[in-house]
């Protein structure tokens, strides 16, 4: 029998919980010795996916490097809610310069560390989707192309939330934002090909690209830890629901992130040197409505009348992702995921 | 050692002697030769362990320097013109964060119309950014000022820009007394950063600051510039004691004692102005020159001390504030606000137009005989401008102005050639 290693999922997902695992398999967050890189007291909204994502990611990076991480941050929610002067939630060395340059600032840090022979210290650059896909894209592409020793993390909440929920290059079709209002004959954001940053990162053939969500903590941490074992440019794209911008319940953040994956709208995968090496399978395939209905930014698709045409188009995006990435295995779902053996 | 060397290469050698740790390169004329030369030194291993990074834009170049400096690395880049404008958000950020670094600005005009030649528009566009701005008169100055720039920058934790005239200096080959590594090492201690990203002592740099402290943080930047104004002459004197020749300082005076008329200028044009002044003095005119080496911080007191006794001051500069007039002239006027001095603002050498000795002499003769306008654009072809304004009045679609005026100029040249040819025809 061949054993396929899987990563455990969070409690509440019907999968096995942390406390049932042996200590070496538990999450970084369950470790009382975790670094608390982004500590409590920050001013993020209730249910902020970005705060969760940043906390998971950086603590994992810290553990993977023996607490030797320097972080940069683009302008945005994460920067603003963590450092209202003179307070700071960062327990690690942290630098914010401007909105569009965080990848280049990270390059500079990595270069100075190399010049000083301190390659034991690693660099993590962080930005929202605007700071990654739009205004920061030039610097990010340059950093990828040079293969600088930087892990760049995009916390994708699919719009400019810090300035009041305006459309970004990562805003999905039909979503309402303050600059794509749910009015007119085509309410919400336009249908276009979008800007698929993980694919664009892969096209640079950098050593490691991965996507993750804040619903699967083990997976997210494992990807950060793996990224820290690799030298060169690495890209991690984390889907982080935003209750304020998405119009969702703060308590629903993790569920919504899971639904994004389970519907196929957000493919969770890893790629090395431009080739996909692993995907997280959908465990219970769900129609896109189950994801969309939880968010007021899509309310216009359901009331006053259901817009079947647009819903079908969104379903088509999910279906294409499922085929393209091989996200769903009907037989596996019917057999039940729990039959897969775990790696020991 | 005295070398016959191109300005850019002299600067590259000078920067190399400062043992930089991170150098960023993005091509823009006329600074390219500097980073090209440094690229070779890094690639051959001569500058080890220095990192040379070919970035994708000037915005990235300045951003890389911000990261490197915050990590305690001695960082350097060079740019000009559009490149400086493209990085301007990061330029302000570096100064606002108080991060030491040195950048050469190979002064070049800013478009539109696009123009690769020399003037000071680029430097003036960032005069309020919080960077210290030093202007080189010669390539010797340029080489020396970079060494002083690293020292000053790291001492007061502010970025320093060394301005040298594009092409006129960067591409000119002349004699430069190149400093020795031993002297540079004596003069420039290793970089000990005031703030640094350190895993042992984590700090947050670049936090958001609200109304409660913003004014104080900004005032500190001003206070540091005032401190720089004290340190610059001292550093210049220390430089002289180590290297055996003088360079830097806030201002430079030439035949200024008891001069009735004083010309104020910055950069390489000082050479031409000094030649013109020598001629005028030979013709019995009482005239001298004040060069501004440190433009930011602006040496208000020193300028006042040197100029308040003069009868008239003529500021000649290679940039202007559109809708206002001279920029340096405005600063000089601020310095002289308590003095009774006639002041003239002259804009010259825009976009690489030669500032000739003949034009300067004629202009200064007008000034001395009180015939000069308070704001003068030297050697400007008013006729061409008038014609374009007439075209604008005639038609709602008069077309692209630069192209119209260029055509006008060419027609004039052509008709002059025709006239000359006709007069030279035998018979």
Can you give keywords for this protein?
heterodimer; A: 344 residues; alpha/beta; Rossmann fold; eight-stranded mixed beta sheet; 12 helices; B: 427 residues; 3 domains; seven-stranded mixed beta sheet; 16 strands
Detailed description of the structure:
Chain A has 344 residues and is of the alpha/beta class. Chain A has one domain (18-339): 3-Layer(aba) Sandwich (Rossmann fold). Chain A is built from 12 helices and 8 strands. Chain A has helices spanning 49-65, 77-82, 102-115, 129-134, 137-146, 197-203, 217-228, 243-246, 253-262, 288-292, 308-325, 330-335; strands spanning 69-73, 94-96, 122-128, 150-156, 208-213, 234-239, 269-272, 275-279. In chain A, strands 2-1-3-4-6-5-7-8 form an 8-stranded mixed β-sheet, sandwiched between helices. In chain A, helix 1 crosses helix 7 (217-228). Chain A is globular and about 60 Å long. The two termini of chain A are 15 Å apart. Chain B is an alpha/beta fold. Chain B folds into 3 domains: 2-243, 3-Layer(aba) Sandwich (Rossmann fold); 251-377, Rossmann fold (3-Layer(aba) Sandwich); 391-419, no CATH class. Chain B has 15 helices and 16 strands. Chain B has helices at 7-17, 32-43, 58-70, 81-86, 88-97, 121-125, 139-156, 181-187, 214-243, 269-282, 300-307, 327-335, 357-368, 382-394, 401-424; strands spanning 2-6, 22-25, 51-54, 75-79, 102-107, 132-135, 160-165, 173-177, 204-205, 251-254, 261-265, 287-292, 294-296, 312-317, 342-347, 375-377. Chain B has a 7-stranded mixed β-sheet, sandwiched between helices. A 6-stranded mixed β-sheet of chain B has the order 10-12-11-14-15-16, with helices on both faces. A two-stranded antiparallel ribbon of chain B has the order 1-8. Chain B starts with a strand and ends with a helix. The relative contact order of chain B is 0.10.
